[in-house]
Predict the structure.
Amino acid sequence: MSVNQVSVFLENKPGTLNKMTEILARHNVNIRALSLADTNDFGIVRMIVNDVYEATNILKEENFVATFTPVLVYKISDETGTLNNLLKSFTEADVNIEYMYAFAGKKNAYMIFRVKDTKNAESVLAAKGLKSLTQEEIAEV
Amino acid sequence: MGKYFQEEIECAPIEKIREIQNEKLVKQVRHVWDNVAYYRQKMQEKNLTPDDIKSIDDLHKLPLLSKADLKAAYPYGLLACPLKDCVRIQSTSGTTGKRVVAFYTLKDIDIWEECCARAIVAAGGTNEDVCQVSYGYGLFTGGPGLNGGSHKVGCLTIPASSGNTERQIMFIMDLSATILCCTPSYAAYIGETMKEMGLTPEQIPLKAGIFGAEAWSEEMRRDIEKTLGIKAYDIYGLTEISGPGVSFECSEQRGMHINEDHFLAEIIDPDTCEVLPEGTQGELVFTSLDKEAFPLLRYRTRDICTLTREKCSCGRTHVRMTKPKGRSDDMLIIRGVNVFPSQIETVLLNNGYAANYQIIVDRINNTDTFDINVEMTPDMFTDNVGEIQSRKKILEDGLKSMLGIKAKVNLVAPKTITRSEGKAVRVIDKRKI
């Protein structure tokens, strides 16, 4: 199962990111993972949050442009070589990664991947024994 | 009620219109000569007396008036009747820094409202309609003009004025408003908000909109028509001449009929001031024909357009003007190139962006900088950085080919550009020239 990531457009000026975190904090939205793609002119924040619908709704109300993007999340243990092994499977399955970022759970680390064809990637990786996490599972870790 | 508010005059043969114009012009010139020292002096400088103006063929002899004259004669210098006969003033928004104050007698207001009534009927309005006037009320002519026109037609009039968009929408929905009058940018904003609320064009009771007081493009018209499920009609006017209703669109949507039994139109070359033949693009000049308080002879509007007398299938015989390409007041000269905000709007809408933009011009190291802030919209946003950048590049290329010069586009967050509940702040010119 893929997970819904919240992607938010950020204007390039001081305080924009903080304004967004302020809104999320006020509404008790917990950010589990965050990555920022920046260009000279604008940025895109990508987040895994505890409540994607609440997060996107309140951001839209406050005049942010926000959207869902499906991503794949895999668990790796905090040991040498585990990321390498995971990526090897991607290579063998010929899955191209658009971007990735990570977050640490209570016990394990979690890798978040954006790929072109999420469904296909998920199934070819599943065939290699890799199980992606669901939204519910992420909330638990 | 039929297709016309005043069929006899709106569809009169051209000879009849000429006859009315000749008669009224002679009287109007005499009225100005007798009562406006400022203009009398201008005529004397050209060795003219009212006797030299026998018909509209002599119009070109009269001196032109410009906004600078209005400023010089401010406030009472062009008033042509005693204050005891004046009942109202209206004033321009002063977007270009020079506020204009115009005066009206009861008869002036009556004629102005009749002109607005003609526009409402041309948009399909009857006494069965519910007409919401969301132009600003007050000094701005938009609200009072359409309000009066709507009364004359017999519509149930909702004097909503501008602002408080939620309440606007509540009235439209609860009272089943069928006609909306406001600025095109406010119409677009109302439409956008209704769409966000999940209202479909089928659910919206409106059938027509009468939008004016600022430049807007065909693309913006189509956009508004689609979102609100209406037919959108253009209306034109200026405070100096009366207000909205100087000209208006009919169902053909091919130019605006000028109420030429009241306002005589000419097109001149803005540089040489020569009168240009019909069909040639130039600056629009108006002569009021029956104003009592504030008659203006040969007033330069700064609006660039063309006139046509081609037969209109709506049946009206009055001359039509094209949508002004832009008021020369709105026109910017950037790096020596003429730029009209309406051109930018066209490119934005053609590329999927909303018409929410702001132009920022500055001069740094003797070179003009040209930035356009464009609001990001949910439709144009994607999680893919490269995709956003390539859409922006396509937009910049489109602007370059339309304008002839390069503009830098900055994508900004939604609703951060000052909204036009009255008029849009489209241009910020920081140059100190």
Summary: The two ends of chain A are 16 Å apart (CA to CA).
